[in-house]
Amino acid sequence: MLREIFAQPDALRRTLDLYAIPGHLNAEMQERLRCWFRPEGEVLIAASGSSRHSGLAGEILLEDLCGLAVDVEYASEYSIRGGCDLRHPSCLVISQSGETSDTLAAMRAAKARGQKTLAITNDPNSTMAREADVSMPLGAGRELAIPATMSFTCQLAALYVLALFEGTERGLISPEELSDHIAGLYAQCDRIEMQLEEWREQARELAEIYSSASSFLYLGRGIHYAIAREGALKLKEASYIPAEAYPAGELKHGPNALVGEQVPLVVVATVDRQLPASVERYERTVQLLEDMKKQGARVIALANRGDAGVIELATDCIEVSPATEYLLPISEVVPLQLFAYFMALERGVDMDRPRNLSKAVIDPNVRS
Asked: How far apart are CA 230 and CA 224, in angstroms?
């Protein structure tokens, strides 16, 4: 797991190289994607586990950058829900293995209704990649640890590229803006690479401090809520510590009753100061941190590097190099992965092979 966390900058670069060159998107990729998208502007994302969390981030990307209407479904629920759906959205499925039975069933159900399908997988020869109308493989390479790390960040990058394509197709992203976005994606690989050693040491120290906690609450707003969910899942599957994630504004609608010495908070409090909506979310999160400090809560915050305000309010702070709102999640999740790894070490858990889990959830009773 640790090796794969540190392999993420190169995995991200390989993934981006599949779809982009400086200033442009790959022409062959664009031609393939035109076969998937429907002009109605509706998209259904079906996935499970970590892949669903990347789908939640993808929902924000596609809605904010492209003006699309996006629903994210649990793949395990979608294919058996029944009922009558008069819509026919384009269907996007996300799966590390490309063999996850629930997600495969969701994709096949969509195809049976005549919906166009796109599969983002880490295996270009997987069943989903072969059966989907369009395949967007990742460049992560083989991932051995059961907790997904590099495949997750590569999914985020692929979804960002997909949003850039749809945004340019709809005339919402200019050629100059597209060039800036692509440059930002490549720069994010460098930012992560430069911070990995610092994050590793911080995560090791924090794991020693918080190893006795009975559970955690993870909080985030907007696209960062998806990262809070992924951070909580990583902690659960790698270290067996219960963790839940909520939109930050929901803490006081019940979950705050749990907060105490044995139930710390992990709060994503980064900001893109060039985006007014991001600033508003950040200011509300800072207000929450002020309230939590008065309450005596133990808080680990993720914040922009040098954000003295958040550093003052949090018990502990992990700093992230500033980036745009839609690039920050690719960085934010990495220290949360490292925290889960070191918490597992503190608990004596084999994080590469957690009990009761497998790399791909395949139903032996379902034939491919």
From this structure: 10
pLDDT tens figures, 310-358: 999 999 999 999 999 999 999 999 999 999 999 999 999 998 898 888 7
Please state the separation of Cα 209 from the chain's center in Å: 26
Q: What are the residues facing 266 on neighbouring strands?
A: 218, 300
20 to 4, 61, 92, 158, 323: CA distances (angstroms): 23, 18, 20, 10, 20
For residues 230-267, one letter each, b for 16 or more C-beta atoms within 10 angstroms of the residue's C-beta and e for the rest, the string is: bbbbbbbbbbebebbbbebeebeeebbeebeeebbbbb
Residue linked to tokens 């690989």: 189
337 and 234 in contact (C-beta within 8 Å)? yes
Residue 332 backbone phi and psi in degrees, to 5: -55, -40
What domains sit in the chain, N to C, each tagged with a CATH number? 2-173 (3.40.50.10490), 195-347 (3.40.50.10490)
CA distances from 262 to 97, 256, 280, 305, 340 (A): 36, 13, 30, 28, 17
Give CA–CA dist 177/77, Å, rounded. 38
pLDDT digits (tens, 9 = 90+) for 136-149: 999 998 899 999 99
Token duo for residue 10: 């190169």
pTM: 0.95
C-alpha span between 247 and 287 (Å, rounded) = 14
Helix H or strand E segment including 199: helix 175-210
Q: List the Cα angle 319/323/327 in 5-degree steps.
A: 105
Separation of first and last alpha carbons in the chain? 29
